[in-house]
Structure formats: C-alpha cells, structure tokens
Automatic annotation (TrEMBL), chains A, B, C, D:
Transmembrane segments: none
Name of protein: Chorismate synthase
Named cofactor requirement(s): FMNH2
Flavoprotein is among the record's keywords: yes
Organism: Shimia isoporae
Catalytic activity: 5-O-(1-carboxyvinyl)-3-phosphoshikimate = chorismate + phosphate
UniProtKB keywords: Amino-acid biosynthesis, Aromatic amino acid biosynthesis, FAD, Flavoprotein, FMN, Lyase, NADP
Complexes and interactors: Homotetramer.
Length: 368, 368, 368, 368
C-alpha cells in the first residue's frame, strides 16, 4: 500500500515538492528491452513545461529529466527506473504570509489540518508540479506500449474552456499540436480562445476546462473485473490529477438522459473478422474490458483558485483575512493538464496490457 | 494485487456469479469490537433487493446474508469476515442461445474476447448481482464508522432519471426513504417518476440516471495524497459499479464553466473554532483531503442494454443476429444503484478513517 | 493491503475460524481455462486431513471442499474462485476455562492483547485449521501449473522429527507417499519414527520437525528482484504457516559455515544447451531468480504447545494457573504441515510464473 | 504490486544500480512531524559503508545521503521522502569480459536468462550496494520509532563466521560497537576473528556468517494474522537481503529437535501487571503477534562467490571458461550485513506499529 504510487504491473511512485531540490518518479515493472533515453521523455515534458507562452504560468523551469537507474545501453533492464527533475526556478522570497494563511480552494488548509507540518512553499507536495513526474513516467509507458502494440496512439485535447466549447463538426485531429490550447480546431478558433483567456487574465480571474483523451488501437480484452476495470483505473488516474472534479467514459454523465434503445452500440462483424460497432457510446469499454474501439475519457479541471481577485479566508490563528494570490499562475490549468491526462492514459493502458499478458496470456476467445 | 478487491485498510474482496450457488464478500481489516449481526446487514441488502416493487426487476431473491467468520459473541474480532449470500431464484432454462450471442452494451463480448471461457448464465461475474456483496460489506463499514465517528451519516438519492431531474429548490432530505426512487422530493413528484418509468417499460425501453451520495460529519483531514486521495478512491469506487459512465465530486464537470472567482469556497472561522465555508463547490475535498464539509459525489448510470427492443449483433461464429433481451430486468438500474453507491461511500470513508489513524494518529494541525 | 491474503498475481485470501460454521479461500488471478473440479482439490485436502491415522489428531473432519464461484463448465473463468470447507466436528463443550486462560506457546495471549475480542474456540483464527484453505488453494495452483509448465513437480517430505533425521544416503523419492510421516525412507525407518512418536505421546509430550519441499522442473528466470524474490516470497509463505520458526533455501543456515570455494555451484553447458550445475548449494535460486535447478526449501515446525504435561500460565485476571491442554491434538504437527508446505510452494511458483509472463513475456536471454 | 517495494504502511521502494549515477529509496507512509536530517541517516550509512577497515571491501564510497523531499523545517511532512546516494567510486575499466561471462553463485546468469538486457557493471541491480538504500530508509524508521515508542532499541551482531561461533556465556551487549565484526565479545575474541578472516583472504577465499538482530521494548500486540504476521514479514525482509539463505525466529531450525514440554515459554504476571515469561523460545512472537519480549531474528549469509580462486563456468555463447573474480570484495559479507539487518528490523517494526494503530487503535485486551 503506497499512497504515492499507482498501477498494478507498471507501477509509478512519485515524490518531490514544488520548491524542494528535485522531484521525480520511480517506475517499477517496465518490461526489459524497451529503448528509452532522456530525449524521448523530454519531448513530453516540454509539452507540459510552464513558461512557454503567455497562456500558461511564467515560472520558467527547464524540467530537464535525468534517468538515474533501470536503463542500460539505451534499453530498460526490467529493474526500477528512477526519473529525476531538478527544480531550478524556485524564486527566493518571504513565505511568512503564505505560511500563516489558507488560500481558499487550495490544499493549504487540509494539509495543515491533516499533517500539522506542511511544506507551504508553492503548495509543496500538493502543487501541480508533481504532474511533471507523471509526464516523465508516461513517456516510459509510451515507449513500452510502442514495443508491445505498434500503432497504438494516445492523444489528448481540450473540448471546453469556460464558456467556450469545441465544434465537434469541425473536429481536426491534426490541428491539436498546432495551437497553444491543444484544441482540435483551426487557427481562428484558437485565436478566439486566446482572446477569451487573456481577457480573463486581465480581470484577475481564471477558468475551468474539459480535457478529452483518446487511445486508438487498444486491443480488445484488456481490463480486469471487478475492481481493476479499465474504466475504474482510468477514473482514479484522472481524478488523482490536481484540480480534477469529474471524470467521464464514453457518454459520461450524459448517459443518464439516454434510453437503452439509443445507447446500445450495435455489433457487426468487420472485414478483418473482428467485431465492429455502429457507435461508441461505451467509450471503448464494456464490463471494464476494452472492446477494441477508441477508449475515450474526459475530465473536468476546476479554475485555479490562485487569482488576484481577493477572497475571504482565515489565518492559522483563526483570524479573518483576505487572500490575493500573487505569483506566477496559469489562468487555465486545463491547458497544461492535457499532456498529464495523456500520460495517465499511457500508464493505465500499459499497465493493463501487462496485466492481461500475465493473467490470461493470449486472448482466448475467438469470433468465427 | 487483487482484481476483485478494493480498499487500503478496510479491504473488500467480492466473489460469485449471478447464477452460481452463492456470492459474497471477504472483508479484511475491520477493527475489532464492532457490534455486527446479520440483521444489521440485511437492512441494507433489503434496500437493494430486487422484486420489491414494479419499478425494479421481478427476479425474487431473498438476498439473505450469512456471516461465516470474523464475528464472535456479536462483535468483530479483527480477523477476516466472510459474508455469503446464496442464490435461490436461478430460473432453470435453456441458455443455448445466450451462450452463442453477444448482447450489445453487455460484457458478453468482452468477457468472451478476454477469457474464452465465460459463465454466460445471467451475465455471470459481470452481473449487477455482484453489488449485493458490496452492500453487505458496506453494512459492516457503516457499523464500524458508527463506532469511530458517531453522527457520521451517509445517504444516497437519485437526482436525474432520463429527462426528469429533481428540483433542488424543493430538496427534502426526509422524503428520500419514502418513495421507490430514493428521490428527495414529495409524493407527487415520485408519482410522476413512476408514470415516466412505466411508460418506458411499456415501450420496451430503459433509461439512465444520476445518483448523488453525501457523507455528512466526515472529520477534516482524511484522504491521502497523491494517489489515494479521497476523491480518487471515490471515483474508482463509483466507476467500478456496473453501468457507471461518469463520476463527479462537488461541482463535477460543471467546474469547467466556472471562473476562479465563482468557484472559490471562502473560509470563515465557525463558532466551534473549526473552519467553515461560504459554499461547497469543492464537494468537501481539497487536495484529496476532507475539509469537514459534506463529501458530495455523483455518478451517472447508463440505461440497461437488456431491453425488449431488438438490436443488431453477432453470434460467436460471427454471423449476424438481432438480440431481444427477455428475462427480468430493471427498466432503470439507477434505482437499485442508490444503496450500492452508499455502500461504496461507506467503505471508502471507513478505509480513510483507518488509514489516517494509522499514518497520522491524531489530527496535528490546529486552528487558533 | 490485505492481512489475510498472499501472492502478487495469483492471490489467495483465507477466512474462517476453527470452530465457526466454515472456512475457505478466495482465489484471485487464476488464469482462465484451467480444468478444475472439487475432486482434484479433495485429493490434496485428504492428504492434510486429520484423523486418518494414530499419528495425527483424532478430530474427524471430512474437509469436503465446495467450489462456489469462478469455475464454469469444469474450467476456471479467470474470475475469483471461492472455496468453502464446512466445519462439522465442532465438539460442543464448555469453553469457560479456555476463554479465561492463556495456553503457553499459543496465540491466546497475543490475540487477547491485540484485539480484546477473540474467538477462543479451538484457537479461532489462529488455529492450524486455517491451513486447510491453503491446501485447497494450492490444489488450484497445481492445476494451473500443470497447464502452464507440464512436468513441473512439487513434493514435500519430512527430514527430521525431534532427534530422528532421515538418512540422505538412502533417500527414496517414491517411498514418500507410502508412510504416515511422508519420509523418503523405507518401511522399517517409518516404523522407528512411529515408535518414537507413540512413545512421546504416552509421555504426554509433542515434538518438532523439519519439512523439505522441492519443486522440480521450474523454468529458469522466474522471481522478481528486489522485494519479490522467489526466495523472499517462499520464506514469507513458509513462515506464515502456524508454528514455523525457521526457513531455509538450499544450504540454509549451514551456509554460514562454508567457504566461498566450497559453496560455488560451478556452471556447465548441458546437452540441451541449457546451463547445468555441479551442485545445488543455492537451492535453485540466484539473486532471487530461478536457475532451472530444483528449488529446495526447508522449514522447521516447533512442537505443539498443546500437551497434557502441565505448564505454568496466568488467567485473564492475572491470577496464576497451570494449563493442561486436553482435546485432540497432533503429537507432531510437522506431519500435516507437509501438504501445507507443498501448497504454499505451488502458490508461489504459479504466482511467479504469471508475474514473469506479465513483466517479461518470453525469456529474453539466450545461451549460445 | 511493486517488485522493488516492501512494507504495508511504511513502504520503502529502492532503486539504483551498483555503477549507475546514484541509488536510493523512496519512503512512503512515514508519519508527519518526525525530526529527521541527513546526519541522522548518515550515522547508520557509515556503519555499513565499505572501505573502513581491512575486513571489508576496499571500494571507497562516501555513501553520502541527500534528502530530496518529504522533510520540511527538519521534520517529516507525511509525504513521500526521497533519499539519494550518489555513486562516486565507480572505477572505470573494461567490462568486456564480465559482460560475457557468468560468475558462479552470482545473479549474472539468472538476470541474463530473465531479462536479456542486464547491467553487468558491478552486479548492477543485484549488487549488495542496493542495501545502502535500505540502511538510509531504516534510519528514517528508527527516528519514527523513537517518536512512537521511546526506548525501543534495535541491535544486530554476528554470532557465527565460518567455523567461529560466539560464546553466549560471555555475551557482551556493549562490546558490539567496539569491534569490526559487531560481535558481542571482548577484544581478544575479535582479534581471533580478524586473524581467521585475514587467513581466509590470503587463501583467496571467503566465508559465510550468521547475524542476529534483536528488538527490545516492542509493545505486545503488533503483527497481523495471517499473512502479515510479524515473523512472516521479518522472514521476507531478511531473506530479501543479498546472499541470505536462511532465517530463524527464536529457536529457529533448532525447534525441530525440541519437545513441547521443553519449548513452552511459561507465563507469569510481572510486577508491572504485564505478562512475563520463563524463557523466550518463541523469539517474542506468538501467532504472528508480538508478546512484549525481545523479538529475536537470525539470518545466515552465504560466503561471497566473488573470490580469487578459479571456478568453472560458461560464457554467454555457451563456451566453457574459468572465472576468477578480481576487484574489491568483502571476504565476509556478513559483517556489513549487520546494519542492513538492523535496518530491515526497524522498517518492519515501524510498519507494524503503524498498522496496529490503524487497524486496532489502542490495545484492547487487558490483563487483570
């Protein structure tokens, strides 16, 4: 039982605080022989890295990852992999006030009430900086998936930011990497999103978002009933990300409004002798096990509470105060949550690929 | 690593198939000295029990639970508790067809693809009958909670069924137990819900639902970062229930549309020297740790696919077919999901109460 | 984290007390498609069953095992298997005295100090009856091993009982099943062991023993560094058996007296292109991973404390007393520990076969 | 499930190879508020550190530990603690030969057969250097124990080295720290041990050893049946140390030769109202739960196979060869295993103190 770990077979343990010397992840259970180097991981870390454009925090961290163990001659050895990211841009300043005050909507209060001794510098362990470690671990997972199931693709994108939603009729898979918001829309829409966000920033406010992550090419049959269902593990993985308040698979909450006759994904036999479906209300998962369709997960990120608008709170001595969070914060943390969601998807998918291989071996049921 | 278990300290392992001789739960880690008997558990099982009114399936199971171990002289001993529920109403019939056909929206196909050898009688292990074991285990959790934190209350209710939603302006906590739908509304509304559901049933259709579960009186400080957050574990617990497609904490998916200035729960010092809040957008959880407010979780249940309306599918040999699911099925499985959601909440809350006691001992941070 | 479970992939959770209605094991993670029926399991339970000859306790339990879940059409389905053994010969009697007194060398005292509420009837959860559940689970493991690695053989035998030791020069593998002591020796030696034990019984005494368990045909490469080494898991498995006080692999404690030049198992290339060894001081395990040689484990069982010779103790109120344990007890619990040790070996070996398959897939290193 | 982790509540995950850039341990589940700094940990690392006298390897590593997370203002925060030890004395040399040859008695062969890609530099992950991480984690455990149970003392010492055994009649607890062998004997005996070992070294040989670790002041009632017994966890912990071939609790393997009348530890009521015992054959554990007596564990370490005496082996291509292990190796690895055994004892004891607190709260059973 480890509070800082997730995964059954591919097990990731993260450590580190926002303003400590370093943070990282211990990755256990990666198969041997997977080609991995620091540059491969850096690619994904750069995607999450702050300070890259005006839509994210201006904290400037190189987020350079070092592989300290478990890789030899450019390949994983099957032993535990240590990934370390040193913190460099920890602005020195007086933490006196923040150490005595609880920011509304932050974990300041709950960490204090739980532990007494909390690292208040930049949120300490509760900071979203922890997700850098997830992204590094997700990079390992991606390489291992590549070795096991070539062609399996994982991609995340935003579908909503505040009052803006994507137009699914104009969904453009290839546009995702071409804008600061990871939206599957053209440049003009991206500009509208930027204008919206900059206006909010000037109002000293922040906004929430929805991120959708899709895994294509997941083989049918992974996921393990009853309490390690693929959707169960994905729900936990996404909900564990900072600021996430909701998780959906397939139709998600909207399934409540559907009739059974509408919701059924009818089954056909595909040209390749595998089952195909008329629709994907299920989000690629039935009974906790993958169907072979796209696995589709969505999660909502709340607006960051670190805003310049004053909010009422109390000090550690119980006295009332108003809190304005200065410092360098993301007006929409959802943007940088996209690569984190992808990383979690990669870790969960790999985990279940390995678990299935261990428990079942080869898929046993055939069609036809 | 156990695929059929959940919980860190209070660990529940379920077993059994829909039409096997019995099903049940092994409950590990219940503290010693908790008064428990079969009648206490039966109370909650009766709430989930099928065949009680015309809004649920007509399968008639007494769902009588037997305690086979771990309780002595009317109290738990601290050792593993075995709870067994024998199946009695397994209608004998020819399963020939169902064994060869995959029902759209069911786990028939995925279990076949994963395992090859599946128990097709009534859904086997993937049947919602498994949730009876959860409710029994949840009954143990409730008694243990009562011993640890008197006054902690857990209650679930429906907030949506198809196109019907509750009126939060007329929320009636005490009405919940007084209608077949567990809605916090008066008798007239309940009648409307019944009319709606019976109409659907006559159309040979089914419908989805949303259930909300609230835990009141949860002490501040339970929940364990980063991967055993209270909300993470609740998300997994609810998503593991059959047919659940989405889970929300507090604002849930709606948080995406909010601004930071709207979403902040401002903090006051209460009369008892404990923090109080101007609102509960957070759903009682910050940074994965309870705030002392109500813990609020919602989950969406899809409409059951077991309907009399024909749906296209394939047989195990790949040939096309149309499936009509006869038999005794719930037109809205969300109704019977209410006590299941409560049971999962009880298990998770107890689990974290014990975990906190082990890891931290007494709350260490004080206010004032 | 489950206190009543063991295993990584093949996970066994036991439950039940000596004098409760039943006891059993939930077996999680057994691969699908393994042929299993109750008779197969009963074969091993009968080997452990009490009351079969005058060298074991006279409690007469049929130890009939029922499979309640996880097996369909004579094969495992991949879901959790519930094995139940009902207790039948629970002699009714007055437990007044035993409930108030602590037997020296028993868990009476420690269960009381830990839990307060203990099931004192026949030792409750601490009774060696719990091992019946292990033997049933081990029967499942044996069938799964048979399917995965045909020819892998697991056999246990006694090597010492009190002052008697086997003569390794006259080791007879085939004689093991032909005497009441499971010793690899001829009938004459078995008669000497019986005479020795009956003499002890008449002296109202009991005696300890050493059991050796060998697994032949274990493929090279199973076992997982650093904390799930094959020998680590075997040590835990054997030490968890009631009354065990020591565990050895290969040379065991005697390795302390050896020089490096004596202890080295020199390596050759065998006729089949696989490594062979000049000796097996290592007991078939290097660095926690199997070498392909026989895996050899030994464990020592202390003499049962349940003897008719009076021993000084205290009552629950602190007053001094003398304890004579009447009832039906084994003069040498080591005899019935043989099938238990075999069962634990089977569970651990299967567990690591599955784990290796999941983590590594096929053995990757070749010789030549 | 983590292959590189151990512990239930206090969970340690180690990482790193002998000749990689660094190694370390992630410590999860340490209670908050425990005073910890690097100097406290260094004290124990120095005890294990190589190159300190002529009886151990001449590899000279400072083994300087850095705390990268989880400690703030000199106290633990309750979040994951990262401990890193950088490798500095990795002699550069040609590994060509060692990469192609399997040393008898090493994990070279089994890692190759299991993983294919192995880090052959200095044993890689299988090197005893991994135990430095355990000692660092054990240092954390010691401080946490000090906060929870003042006066609890853990000490290890050698009892046998090859043909030499300590004289228990002249047992001197205070002498342990005063000689290079950690033996509880006077200076003259230590000189004899040194002469013996130096003679062996000149013969190009090595030798095995037995280490005993004692925990004094362990409260009664810790340890959790059935598969997390205190002795089960200690057996696993000790057997997981490199080169260990046997583990004993209390009488250990010698229990096999005893009669029940000899083995019983009779119970008295002590002056403080707690149970006392006439002897400690049990090694402080009954039914897997501590009795309040000294917890006594022993383990045997085999002689290192890294000797200058040639031994027959094969190369990776199957061709025969003779291996002489040059380099800097311990003639008796048992010496440096003493602080490792102590560290494992500390981790297991702390783990069970926390587990008991979580599961049971306060001891519930009283005497008198």
């Amino acid at each position: 039982m480890s509070m800082n770990s997730f995964g059954h077979m591919f097990r990731v343990t993260t450590w580190g605080e926002s303003h400590g010397p370093a943070l990282g992840a211990t990755v256990d259970g990666c198969p041997p022989g997977v080609p991995v180097d620091e540059a491969m991981l850096q690619h994904w870390l750069d995607k999450r890295r702050p300070g890259q454009n005006k839509n994210t925090t201006q904290r400037n961290e190189p987020d350079a990852v070092k592989i300290l163990s478990g890789v030899f001659d450019g390949k994983t050895t099957g032993t535990s992999i240590q990934l370390m990211i040193e913190n460099t841009d920890q602005r020195s300043r007086d933490y006196g006030e923040i150490s005595q005050t609880f920011r509304p909507g932050h974990a300041d209060l709950t960490y204090h009430l739980k532990y007494g001794n909390r690292d208040y510098r930049g949120g300490g362990r509760s900071s979203a900086r922890e997700t850098a470690a997830r992204v590094a671990a997700g990079g390992i997972a991606r390489e291992a998936i590549k070795a096991l199931v070539p062609g399996l693709e994982i991609k995340g994108y935003m579908t909503q930011m505040g009052s803006l939603e994507i137009d699914r009729g104009a969904f453009d898979w290839d546009a995702i990497e071409q804008n600061d918001f990871w939206i599957p829309q053209g440049a003009q829409v991206a500009q509208e999103w930027e204008d919206y966000l900059q206006a909010l920033r000037k109002e000293h406010d922040s906004v929430g978002a929805i991120i959708e992550v899709v895994a294509r090419g997941v083989p049918a049959g992974i996921g393990a009933p009853i309490y390690a269902k693929l959707d169960t593990d994905l729900a936990a993985a996404m909900m564990s990300i900072n600021a996430v308040k909701g998780v959906e698979v397939g139709e998600g909450m909207a399934a409540a409004a559907l009739k059974g006759s509408e919701n059924a994904d009818e089954i056909y036999l595909g040209a390749d002798g595998q089952p195909e479906f008329s629709s994907n209300h299920a989000g690629g998962i039935l009974g906790g096990i993958s169907t072979g369709q796209d696995v589709v997960v969505r999660f909502a990120v709340k607006p960051t509470s670190s805003i310049l608008t004053p909010r009422k709170s109390i000090r550690i001595d119980g006295s009332p105060t108003e809190v304005i969070t200065k410092g360098r914060h993301d007006p929409c943390v959802g943007i940088r949550a996209v690569p984190v969601g992808e990383a979690m998807m990669a870790c969960v998918i790999l985990d279940h690929l390995l678990l299935h291989r261990g428990q079942v071996g080869e898929n046993q049921g055939q069609i036809g």
